[in-house]
């Protein structure tokens, strides 16, 4: 597909792997050693996600932990105007369904190295990004746009964790209202279907209704089996025939032998570990 | 027995040997493979092997082990041990030939002419008489004649000689002509004996045969020098031949040596000319006994060889006893219980028909231990003599003269003459413990009884040393012990020891279970050196086993003031005794010890000992080195007198109890609170530095107005760390709870809000709700309330199979929740209970945590796991006793870590005693069957028998390995320091981690370390951290900064970003440095993969597209991520290269 990225002049800067272009980035002007972003056109066969149009989207590997979405969008706006940036922990298909937006119950943000999908407004942005010269690393945190790390960031995080009870309450109430409605709807549906045969004539038995059935759980199944077994054991006579008597004796000796073998094995192991040197 | 040959191969039935050997071969092949892996595997035997008809031999063996031993294991183990310690045939041959040569040499020693004993000029230059000759002047003449007889005596002849120190005792019988009348007086016999041996040693030293010829004291007894001979060259270690000298039979009249008789004249001993006429000379039982011992040496040997003949069990039993004694450090030194005594004891049991000659060694051992455990030789001595002759001294005569009585077959010699009552009590206690262990089916008795070394420092709760024993000489004078001194030939240590022990035992009273001491020993010395003085035994160490109930009481209540005993009490305690009025109206003499907190109370025995030794024996404070609480300085916090945190935890638990009462009685909740459970280490007394009440300084922080919360300021030092204490609040189950996990989360959040609201309304507590918890600020503590619903883990586990079956499957989320809401509260309450039974648990666990953290491993091991290991020390302390002081608890902890076989055995912690014998077997079997899937460190508890939830994630095998290495080294160093009263005793040494092990060091800025004051070495400079004194009365309106530790935030970011490249190590209690260790696997070049490009770059070397870590950038990232916290990143590039 695309040509490999230009070989950087600076010694020690490595090449890009096949299909990728390399963009060095560093945190600020005073830092020396850059990280290398590996970028490529986003091209996946089955992904028909309209959030990531095939031609306009740039796939970015190896995004350092302190890079935020805003910061990436600023970095890449040099190549063309950026429509959206999406950071994920690992490459994946576009999200199937978004979970409902929640301020308080969402997952925590990943903190390590990530991958990003940068969507440009036009395909030109993608090409520009791929053919950028790698001489001078891009700078993530400048005086104009500082990126918070360390103490500053942790204090901000701490402040963000303090929630406003009123907001929390409204969100919880809204969710529970929707949930109650959903449950009520399901129950109404179940009640309507109770005792009514479907088109093939089957009647669904639920735990509710007039004649509740056994719950179909694994535990209940096991319990039933156990009960059967006990019933059978109760009926059996253990010391009735002479051979049963012999059998138990034989079994006893076999047990002793087995124990003996086990112990011998243990001893051999201990001997190997020199466990018998008392001092 | 059932014979069913039709199913077997049938033919082998008769040929027992063939079948046995075949049976033996197969498993051995399997064994080799498993031994090479070092992991036990479940045994699988084929049916044919299991069910073939047994031979008679096999049957009887199986039956015997079933009945006699608990298992084959013990029997096999004992057999292996005996094989290991007994002498091989080849070695015996070498020793025999060596003995023959010695015998030949001894008969060739030339005579020496008769001279005065005091005229020692005939001895060659460079040879010193191996006896302290004080006073020097004695009458009598000595001439050397070659020994009348040379015979091998003792263990070698009986076959009870054990490795590693193989000693062969040879007795030289001094001819009658050497002695004169009255040689029994005034040490004349001993002088002659010493001269005799000196002459022998001198002649042997000239021979090439010997690698070394030395003198030593027999069992530390200064009267009895012996000559030690070792062969030349590389055989030096094979054997030590010890030459004893003893007089020919009937040289002395035994009746003169009766324990009531005097044989050392006071006038001679004190070097005063005229004897005080009319004064009765005091008896000298020890002196007499030492002569009698030599006289009866031969006859005792005859007794023993009679007992041992045709009695293999006795040999094995004595060997086992000797190993047992050696592990307990009881078999050497003055007043020891040596192998000879052990043999005599077995002989006694045989003579009394307590054992018979068909018994096995193990049975002999059990009987001997049982006898020791149940018989108190200090009050009811035993006598081997059958002779009821009236001329022999009676047992009561012996009891009057000696502390421990065990009379030999002649009826005259007390074999335990030098033993102190304390030593015997110790033996008794050990025997009792050992019997308990051997009867306990849940432990590996063999390992604990025979293979575990029990040094003083690890066995006793408190240990103290007398730095300079010479101080005891003055004590002799103070206590008027001239007679005893005379009896012991001037050995003031032996003379004062019984008195010192009696004094302390009386003073400590009920506080101790046992007081014991090390047995004084002197190393062998070269024949050209002067014999060691009495003070050369170095320091004398004493061990105390504390009794839980009384050790820490601060009051010593004496008799009522008007009773006659009061005078005696006052005398005993001296100025510390005072009159006090008690609540019952009585006015009594009493001693009140000064101890404001628990850690000081633990040291009351120290106060008593120092006071009594000073008062009665003039031993100054400076010569007593008391090691009971030296380690505690690392868990002390706050201003002097700093406690070790027990008080802090009690007060916070009080506050917690109050909170839980308030929660139960909260009005207006839609569902009631069913239980409130603590889950924080401080609530089970195991938090290293328990939270203290805080009072934040508003001026120091930023504030969020609408939430009434304080915020840290970046430019100021980080505020002091406030740990939130997690408290679980279980809500009643009800049909109202939704059955969907997302909905449950919301409902729980709603409860949090409501709890906060109600607590504020009804109890005016400052609360701050969050979706998952509510922080409550109460009495200066912050509690983190967490609502729990008991069915939630169940709901998280629900999975519907394609057939529509509802299944419960563990998943990480449900396991985490179970851990938090079920296991953790259970653990917390169990350990809280354990602390009530064993007050030293808290200190032990905290010292252990402090040490692990100090070694930078706190993140690699869960706190709960350490708590459980510490708890196991108290629940199954064998072979030790449950620790009563944190110091010995910590030593046990290190010892357990290093000696426990983590690979092949589960550590079973029987919390609340809920596990029965069958459970133990089940756990063991399950463990062996699924070893490879289980965590490297497996800890089973009653509620968690199969999974070991607390060690699942960590530690990893490498970390455990590292931990064991560190523990081994720390234990060694620490015990050396604690046992060396003359050293520097800088015990913090084991709490300072070696840093040269790490590849990169990240140095942190102390300003931003909130727990900086908790460091092992307290920082010189400290920062103000925004707290005002807790006693200042300020109405708190804003919530303090809770659970904010920048270092932990930083570590978390490092972990998440770089966990594939490196491991990070940190001491969370105020460490100033983070150690980074590169993972070698990450540094190998790898092919390019989209999923594996975090922090890596393409390698510029080679043509293949390989990736390597971008180390330079990563090192810079360390600094970037920790902006403001990191002082410098020190890359030790010499340690690694890419």
UniProtKB/TrEMBL annotation, chain A:
Pfam families noted in UniProt: RRM_Rrp7 (PF17799), RRP7 (PF12923)
Compartments where located: Cell projection, Cilium; Cytoplasm, Cytoskeleton, Microtubule organizing center, Centrosome; Nucleus, Nucleolus
Work out whether the entry's keyword set contains Cytoplasm: yes
Q: Which Gene3D superfamilies match?
A: 3.30.70.330, 6.10.250.1770
Q: Name one GO molecular function term.
A: RNA binding
GO (cellular component) term, any one: cilium
- Where does the source fall among the domains of life? Eukaryota
This protein's UniProt keywords = Cell projection, Cytoplasm, Cytoskeleton, Nucleus, Phosphoprotein, RNA-binding
Name the InterPro entries for this protein: Nucleotide-bd_a/b_plait_sf (IPR012677), RBD_domain_sf (IPR035979), RRM_dom (IPR000504), RRM_Rrp7 (IPR040447), RRP7 (IPR040446), RRP7_C (IPR024326), Rrp7A_RRM (IPR034890)
Locate the transmembrane regions by residue number.
Answer: none
Q: Where is the RRM domain?
A: 57-150
Tell me one GO biological process term: cilium disassembly
What do we know about how this protein assembles, alone or with others?
A: Part of the small subunit (SSU) processome, composed of more than 70 proteins and the RNA chaperone small nucleolar RNA (snoRNA) U3. Interacts with NOL6; required for NOL6 localization to nucleolus.
Q: What does this protein do?
A: Nucleolar protein that is involved in ribosomal RNA (rRNA) processing. Also plays a role in primary cilia resorption, and cell cycle progression in neurogenesis and neocortex development. Part of the small subunit (SSU) processome, first precursor of the small eukaryotic ribosomal subunit.
Q: Which family does it belong to?
A: Belongs to the RRP7 family.
Listed name of the protein:
Ribosomal RNA-processing protein 7 homolog A
Q: Which gene encodes it?
A: RRP7A
Automatic annotation (TrEMBL), chain B:
As given in the record, the signal peptide range reads: none
Subcellular localization, per the record?
Chromosome; Nucleus, Nucleolus
Q: Which Pfam families match?
A: Nrap, Nrap_D2, Nrap_D3, Nrap_D4, Nrap_D5, Nrap_D6
The record's GO molecular-function terms, alphabetically, read: RNA binding
Compositional bias annotation for Acidic residues: 1-17
Biological process, per Gene Ontology: rRNA processing; tRNA export from nucleus
Q: Which residues does the annotated region (Disordered) include?
A: 1-37
Per UniProt, the keywords (alphabetical) are: Chromosome, Nucleus, RNA-binding
Q: What is its main location?
A: nucleus
Nrap protein domain location, by residue? 168-308, 314-452, 458-617, 632-836, 838-993, 995-1129
This protein's source sits in the domain of life called Eukaryota
Xref: Gene3D superfamilies: 1.10.1410.10, 3.30.70.3030
Among InterPro entries, the record links this protein to:
NOL6/Upt22 (IPR005554), Nrap_D1 (IPR035082), Nrap_D2 (IPR035367), Nrap_D3 (IPR035368), Nrap_D4 (IPR035369), Nrap_D5 (IPR035370), Nrap_D6 (IPR035371)
A single GO cellular-component term on record: chromosome
Q: To which protein family does this belong?
A: Belongs to the NRAP family.
What role is this protein assigned?
Answer: Part of the small subunit (SSU) processome, first precursor of the small eukaryotic ribosomal subunit. During the assembly of the SSU processome in the nucleolus, many ribosome biogenesis factors, an RNA chaperone and ribosomal proteins associate with the nascent pre-rRNA and work in concert to generate RNA folding, modifications, rearrangements and cleavage as well as targeted degradation of pre-ribosomal RNA by the RNA exosome.
Q: What is this protein called?
A: Nucleolar protein 6
> In the record, what lineage is assigned to the organism producing the protein?
Eukaryota, Metazoa, Chordata, Craniata, Vertebrata
Underlying gene: nol6
